[in-house]
Amino acid sequence: MSGKTMVEKIMGRISGGNPVSAGDEVKVRPDFVMAYDFPGYTDVIFKTVKEKFGLTELPAKERFVIFIDHMVPAVDPKEEEFHEMTRSWCREFDIACVEREGIGHHVAGETGYGVPGAFAVHYDGHISQLGALGCLAVNMPRQTLTEAFVREYIDFQVPQTIRLNLVGKVQPGVMPRDLFHGIVQKLGNKFARFAVLELGGEVIDTLSLDGRQALTSISMFTGALSAVINPDQAMLDYALPIARLDIEPVTSDPDCRYAAVHTVDVSDIGVMVAQPPSPSRTTPLDEVSGLDVQVGYIGSCASGRIEDLRAAAKVLQGKQLAPGFSLHVVPTSKRVMTKAAEEGLLQVFSECGAFVSSASCDFCYGRIATMRDGQRAVSTGTLNVKGRMGSPDSEIFLVNAAVVARTAIDGRIPRSEDMMSEVQ
Amino acid sequence: MLDAKKGTLPKLEGRAAWKFEDEDYDIDQIIGVKNIRIQDLDELCSIAMKSYDPHFQSSIRVGDLLVGGENFGFGHPHSPPMKAMRHMGIGGVIAESFAPTYYRGETAMGFPQITCPGILSAVERWDVLRVVWSSSKVINVTQGTEIPFEMPTKTEQNLLIHGGHMNYLYEAVSNAAGLKD
Predict the structure, then answer these.
(1) Which residues of B touch A139 (CB under 8 A)?
(2) Where are the alpha helices (DSSP H) in A207-282?
(3) ipTM score of the complex?
């Protein structure tokens, strides 16, 4: 009998304690049920729970948390009324409502929801970043998430696990976002379809939590349902003291059964870009070097963490933005912003002419700093589909934070070799 | 284990109203990104598929099907395009394979998505297709051919039988609470 993947172990624990295997259809009890308040989503769930199902309390309410991180700050009374409805609903049902702390997917990790060995559900796929801590966090269709609000157990098929080993030497100037874009270039945008991607190998071992979250947060662009990393001692040291749940961390057995095993040598991955209009259109940065750009964004749940800000500040130190260039720097959370202030990074951003904001999801999808027709952006956001940051006739190039910074100074996309000397 | 659910899977028989041959097809293109915030169903239907076939809406019969390629639904799919398709009477989508977010979202709506490797080359536009659940085969009635498809999971079948996750959940909860006969 073969061993179990960490996904199978987690599914086994939350489906009654018996061993399960990939492909089994089971009823599982999510350890955490998460959402951010957003029109057409949480309001519909709240209404359904209360009016259609007549509930006055949620099953095991300590499992629930609602983040207010979109439409922050509100720009009209309706948005603020929407947030107030969310607060009121959370008070009525006595569940956690978190706001002014930052982007929920990241804040969840900071505040003890990223428990190694836990299973969390959300309706947004970027929650997968809790996998950096060994927590399996999966996005569900809104209706399935509604089920998790209504009853403790939901139907779920134990996913297959695809193992991806990253080996070799990370090149100068290459950041975790480049590694991800390089993986997509090498293996395609659907190699992990419907599976959980388990990242490992010597390169992962060298990455901090920031880097691991950058990789796991956008795993959906491989087709994966989510991503996990077997938690090492550093991750356990971070996660366990703040864990909201007392469970045993799990790792995959050496003889577990993966649906596939891939090994990628990162030594030949250079500075990368995901060109518009798709996160799968990944190429070396040099394919777009020299393009005029007017907008830059450093932030998001994928790449606005302290390591991103440090890399950007190093490039921007003592420089000024290109004439007419708009650079928005949005630390992923309050804690990240506080840390950036302590390190003097915010001063660098301010002095170079950047617009610096407290954490919000809104820059990533064009609700703030909305782009007009014909504009071009470099961004560390999650996505570059048409219209993502404003006009459908604007363009978004997804790059690492240092490339955004360098572009902001030059007003055009740099060459890879420029970046190798910028970030060591 | 899952409870056995009574009911039948939806009847799927209709013409191939369109073949989306592109790999990684982004369904937002059905209405165009600039129209993605439109909610009015009649307005959406008047826009949908216009760039492919200006007479698409008037050509559709209730129960017609869409045929797609590899990884159909890739990108950042929004709900209005397929709301429009359902409103027009499209009964389901048969594709080589699907992108997970799209597939799971539409299945939760009770909109059948049939994974059928080889379908693209086995069908011409307007061929009559029939999905036979009992044998997991798509019959091309026009050409007299058949091709196997991958049965949805039991959970997914339940959602299709009940016409969507909300109906399924309501019935399950009502039954558990003894609210139904």
Answers:
(1) 101
(2) 209-217, 233-239
(3) 0.94
